[in-house]
Specification:
The protein is an alpha/beta fold. The protein is built from 20 helices and 18 strands. It folds into four domains: 145 residues, Rossmann fold, CATH 3.40.50.450; 70 residues, no CATH class; 170 residues, Heat Shock Protein 90 (2-Layer Sandwich), CATH 3.30.565; 86 residues, Arc Repressor Mutant, subunit A, CATH 1.10.10.10.
């Protein structure tokens, strides 16, 4: 970030010591030195230009005008105006941020008194008695400036009010859908009839008519309009390193719930799966190569706990031997990599974002996510996932070395013979529709996704199953006819129910 220019104005002879002290303070202080670049005439190289013109040119390019006023008015020009008054007037005319400090003194030049009275009509000023008091006052004012400009924040990013977004940028339907699901998942105390502003207020996501960054990320119509790097980048590689050609690359936009669904679908539709037999049920067991619950948890963690001030995005990268999920953020203070594999305290980076995600069901239990990721992978016979803190926080899932798909087919041989199209949806449909107890591979995939996410959309199923929207709808109709699933509620706001 480019440092803000600070112009220190005063009668030079009266405040020579204070000017130098402020200059040294602003350039040497560990915090202020990162944000401010002070200017005093004493540090200006020799120029073929009048001192007054140099001063006024500096006022024009400065961000903050600091004025020190005391006993003396200063040398007057032919019009009877001192350089300090001209500098103050120009800063006012150009609408610069003006910080004024009046020194306590027993006497004052008459014109200096008049100038101070003029200043006091415009802005609030502070007083000081010595250099130490002046330093303290300037420090407090500059920190307040950084807070007001949102250059630094005392509250988490998600709790900060967005500088440009308004309630018009909130999708009311998304809030209503959230309430419907939160009631089912966590007994949320409101129903869909409550005004969406009341819901936002209950979740501490609005203040008057202004909305927080968390509100935009959760329910915004276009979250990436205000936080462009909040998108999720997903890519698949043929080998074990990043190299072209890249068979699949997507940048997903949307609110945090949509991002989670899209990223999970990207991974699960591109890894292998083991399909068991139907000895116990007409629904064959399907075991994905990587545990769905663990993959989902890792993606949720990356989206929920990332550093949203970073210029980087969450990245999901699928290699031949592993899955990597990159989160632009750092572990909370006090947590270590070793602690992540055991029970540990929860310290969400974005607490205002995490709470609605918990109510929605995206986060199951506080502080157990990474421990569950490890347990699920080990239980499935996989190598323990790795967690690594680098510039980003990286979660790595290790795939099986022999990733050949194992499928124990129970579909009749006649289906392949009658269709003549072995392995295609068309051929499988023809053979299996003879018995209503049989379902196709694509119907099984639809069922698996519905079981894992009762709120999954047609568009998400298109991504997960890899067939067109019309084919998804056609297969859903057949699953309904077989009495396997039903739709509860409307297309928007309702959910799927799997029937025994």
């Amino acid at each position: 970030m480019q440092r803000k220019k600070v112009f220190i104005s005063s009668v030079q002879s009266e405040f020579k010591n204070e000017r130098q002290i402020l200059f040294d303070y602003l350039t040497s202080d560990a915090l202020l030195g990162k944000f401010f670049e002070p200017f005093i005439f004493e540090r200006t190289p020799a120029k073929d230009q009048s001192a007054q013109n140099v001063f006024l040119d500096q006022v024009r390019v400065t961000d903050i005008y600091i004025g020190l006023f005391g006993e003396k008015y200063g040398i007057e020009d032919v019009t009877g105006v001192s350089p300090t008054e001209k500098e103050y007037d120009l800063a006012s005319e150009l609408h610069k941020t003006r910080l004024i400090y009046i020194k306590n003194t027993a006497k004052r030049d008459k014109k200096e008194t008049i100038l101070i009275k003029k200043i006091e009509k415009d802005i609030v000023r502070n007083t000081f008695s010595d250099a130490n008091e002046l330093k303290a006052e300037v420090y407090a004012s500059l920190i307040r400036y950084l807070e007001e400009k949102e250059i630094i924040r005392l509250s988490p990013f998600d709790a900060a009010l967005n500088r440009t977004a308004t309630l018009e940028d909130i999708d009311e339907k998304k809030v209503i859908n959230f309430v419907a699901r939160a009631r089912i998942k966590r007994n949320f105390p409101f129903d869909e009839s409550v005004h969406y502003k009341t819901i936002l207020s209950h979740l501490d996501l609005i203040m008057d008519e202004r909305v927080t960054n968390a509100a935009i990320l959760l329910f915004g119509k276009k979250p990436q309009k205000y936080m462009i790097t909040s998108s999720v980048k997903c890519c698949q590689f043929y080998g074990n390193k990043v190299e072209k050609p890249i068979p699949s690359y997507h940048i997903y936009d949307g609110d945090v719930f949509e991002l989670i669904d899209q990223a999970v679908s990207f991974v699960m539709s591109r890894i292998d799966a083991k399909v068991g037999d139907r000895n116990k049920s007409i629904l064959a067991d399907v075991e994905p190569e990587l545990p769905l619950q663990a993959v989902t948890e890792a993606i949720v963690n990356a989206i929920c706990h990332r550093d949203y001030t970073s210029n980087a995005s969450v990245q999901v990268m699928l290699f031949k031997n592993r899955l990597e999920i990159w989160n632009p953020g750092q572990l909370p203070y006090g947590l270590t990599i070793e602690m992540l594999k055991t029970e540990h305290p929860s310290r969400p980076a974005n607490p205002l974002l995490a709470r609605p995600m918990y109510l929605y069901g995206s986060i199951e239990q506080v502080g157990t996510g990474t421990e569950m990721i490890v347990e699920k992978c080990i239980k499935q016979g996989l190598r323990s996932p790795d967690f690594k803190q680098d510039t980003d926080f990286i979660t790595t899932f290790w795939r099986n070395e022999d990733k050949a798909v194992t499928v124990e087919k129970t579909v009749e041989k006649s289906s392949e013979k009658s269709s003549g199209e072995k392995g295609t949806e068309k051929g499988t449909e023809k053979g299996t529709e003879k018995g209503t107890e049989r379902i196709t591979k694509n119907q099984q995939l639809i069922l698996d996704n519905v079981i894992n996410n009762q709120y999954i959309t047609i568009d998400d199923l298109v991504i997960a199953v890899g067939i067109s929207a019309s084919k998804i709808k056609e297969n859903i109709s057949k699953l309904k006819a077989k009495g396997l699933i039903e739709r509860v509620g409307p297309d928007k706001g309702g959910h799927w129910k799997v029937l025994k």
